[in-house]
Description:
The protein is of the alpha+beta class. The protein has one domain: Alpha-Beta Plaits, CATH 3.30.70. The chain contains 3 helices and 5 strands, in the order βαββαββα. Helix 2 runs antiparallel to helix 3. It is globular.
Amino acid sequence: MDETGKAEFNIEVSATDTTDEDIDQMTRQLLAELREMDVESAELTKGADAPRGTKSVDPVMMGNIAIAVLPTILPRVVDFVQAWTMRGHGRAVKFKGKVGREVIEFEGSAEDLQQLLSSLSTGRKKK
């Protein structure tokens, strides 16, 4: 697949008034649901090995999912993540990554993200 033909980004999950265990559970729930969609890949983001004496079994970054999708699927993924955040109190997500050759970092409403993605698509079509 052409590198400019896919979107690769991280989704960072957060929520107000939650514990690390809650964030981990929410992240894994979102990951499972994303894997049911037509995405290229969706994985927990790997971090450094856990410090000695900690309870962590997986060397993963808390609340982070790495995902790769075709640009045609990206709007569905964004809509899905927006709906997922609304199902729980105080949930929020941050997107960081690349859509084609464009680097994006975004935290805000899903509508604002859709506008950003549309402007990136429009910019590519003008070239």
